[in-house]
């Protein structure tokens, strides 16, 4: 099978710049494609974190001002574990501290339309004959609104394009004046182009104009064609349904491996589950929970928002202690929710523990030390924590949405018989539905043989990025064929 040249454009890349799942994908998927011997290069802004990580980056090309509002820039070459990076160096737009999208007060940078307009414009340029690089790409893979405007500049003779939607709620909408400021062709200002309710929408432009569209799970690809999940773009997605694919994200199986994880108190595997109990004891000790062995420990690692369904957990509150069960929470977000979990933990010391913020090593220890993981999201394009949980023998409780529906198979007589049951699935975002799942999980946990079977079913699922990479390669080849 012929090898492809691929430009992967992203506004984030873990571990250096990450606000969500996009950062993880931008690190893992290109690396998997590189391991499969494809010529892939990642285009990302030269934020301070990237310049600090790659101080020896070398000059690839000088770019003139590409549009009235776009300042001159440079392309720098760097390499991360053999993966080539192209850093878009424009200090006037990207040399800013902290979050890539927000200022110190938590507001969007007022020039985000220009900043990511430049990133999109350069992504397009590298797919055109006018590219300043000798390297030529077969396909331009764009991710979320920050790069999705690129197809507005791509012509039939240029590279094919893919836009991946990681979260359709974020669409990159800006004033119509950006049409001229970014040097966009005037003919693109149409309802079937970049215009969206009187604004310029980066994401809508990509969904309208890219060769093909993907999103991060098969169920989410279906859901965003429905008004309830499509954030105004459902009609367009239904119109382009034949161009839309859902490809489940993978997980880094080297980083998330209970047999080799350095953050854990004791390594374990599907055939060595007894050692998991040591991780539970260590987690109870670390978070100030009673060293109880007669009750399950439920874990949560999340942004604290209603989208994640964590208000349902707060509503149930102390009821969880009466199952009886324990609860360990790591997260931050909505201030009222933070205060609610802090108060709950204060009222039930030894049974409920809350750590505000995020700690990567503690996240690994919760995945390993908890008996069951709570993720009752109202919507979840893909989700990664449920896959980490399955890998760590920590059956998840999830709502049937997006990637959660594609990865977690509810415990039932049939799924136990065919060895697929690996967790607990609720169909509605209500305290009652969640409570029934908590009760069911607790009953199953007390049946040690049954629980071990559920754990091993989950641990034997393969969520590696190699699977997703194969599906993306099929998508790329389909896009190239369709484009030509």
Written account of the structure:
There is one protein chain. Helices cover 36% and strands 19% of the residues. With 484 residues, it is α/β, with parallel strands linked by helices. It has a nine-stranded mixed sheet with strand order 3-4-5-2-1-6-7-11-12, sandwiched between helices. The chain has a six-stranded parallel sheet with strand order 15-14-13-16-17-18, with helices on both faces. The chain has a three-stranded antiparallel sheet with strand order 8-10-9. A hairpin with a 2-residue loop joins strand 9 (195-196) and strand 10. The model has no long low-confidence stretch (mean pLDDT 96).
Q: What integer value in Å does the Rg equal?
A: 23 Å
Number of helices: 19
State the share of residues found in helices, binned by percent: 25-40%
Give the overall silhouette: elongated
Structural class: alpha/beta
Average of the residue pLDDT scores: 96
Q: Care to count the β-strands?
A: 18
Determine the strand fraction and express it as a percent band: 15-25%
Major pleated sheet: 9 strands, mixed
In spatial order, strands of the major sheet run 3-4-5-2-1-6-7-11-12
List keywords for this structure.
nine-stranded mixed beta sheet, 18 strands, 36% helix, 484 residues
Brief rundown of the structure:
By secondary structure, the chain is α/β, with parallel strands linked by helices.
């Amino acid at each position: 099978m012929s090898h492809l040249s691929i430009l992967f454009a992203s506004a984030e890349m873990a571990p250096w710049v990450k606000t969500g799942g996009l950062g993880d994908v931008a690190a893992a998927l290109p690396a998997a494609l590189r391991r499969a011997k494809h010529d892939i290069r990642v285009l990302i802004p030269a934020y301070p974190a990237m310049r600090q990580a790659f101080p020896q980056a070398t000059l690839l090309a000088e770019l003139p001002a590409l549009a009235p509002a776009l300042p001159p820039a440079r392309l720098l070459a760097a390499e991360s574990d053999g993966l080539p990076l192209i850093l878009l160096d424009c200090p006037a737009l990207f040399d800013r501290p902290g979050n890539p999208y927000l200022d110190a007060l938590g507001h969007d940078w007022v020039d985000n339309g220009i900043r990511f307009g430049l990133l999109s414009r350069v992504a397009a340029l590298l797919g055109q004959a006018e590219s300043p690089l000798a390297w030529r790409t077969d396909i331009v893979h764009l991710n979320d609104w920050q790069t999705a405007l690129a197809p507005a500049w791509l012509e039939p003779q240029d590279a094919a394009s893919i836009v991946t939607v990681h979260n359709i709620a974020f669409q990159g909408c800006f004033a119509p004046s950006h049409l001229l400021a970014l040097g966009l062709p005037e003919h693109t200002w149409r309802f079937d182009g970049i215009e969206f309710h009187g604004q310029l929408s980066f994401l809508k432009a990509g969904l309208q104009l890219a060769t093909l569209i993907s999103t991060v799970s098969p169920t989410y690809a279906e859901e965003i064609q429905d008004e309830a999940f499509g954030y105004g773009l459902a009609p367009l997605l239904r119109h382009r349904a034949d161009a839309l694919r859902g490809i489940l994200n993978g997980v880094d199986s080297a980083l998330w491996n209970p047999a080799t994880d350095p953050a854990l108190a004791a390594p374990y595997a599907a055939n060595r589950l007894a050692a998991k109990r040591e991780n539970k004891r260590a987690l109870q000790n670390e978070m100030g929970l009673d060293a109880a062995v007669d009750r399950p420990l439920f874990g949560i690692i999340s942004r604290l928002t209603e989208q994640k369904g964590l208000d349902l957990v707060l509503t149930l509150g102390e009821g969880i202690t009466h199952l009886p069960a324990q609860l360990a929470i790591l997260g931050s977000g909505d201030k009222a929710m933070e205060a609610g979990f802090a108060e709950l933990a204060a009222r039930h010391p030894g049974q409920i523990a809350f750590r505000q913020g995020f700690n990567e090593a503690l996240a690994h220890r919760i995945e390993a030390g908890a008996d069951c993981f709570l993720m009752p999201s109202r919507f979840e394009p893909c989700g990664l924590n449920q896959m980490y949980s399955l890998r760590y023998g920590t059956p998840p409780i999830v709502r049937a949405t997006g990637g959660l529906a594609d990865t977690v198979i509810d415990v039932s007589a049939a799924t136990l018989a065919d060895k697929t049951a690996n967790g607990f699935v609720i169909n509605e975002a209500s305290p009652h539905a969640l409570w029934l799942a908590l009760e069911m999980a607790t009953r199953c946990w007390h049946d040690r043989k049954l629980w071990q079977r559920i754990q091993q079913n989950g641990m034997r699922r393969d969520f590696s990025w190699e699977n997703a990479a194969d599906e993306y390669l099929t998508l790329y080849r389909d896009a190239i064929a369709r484009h030509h």
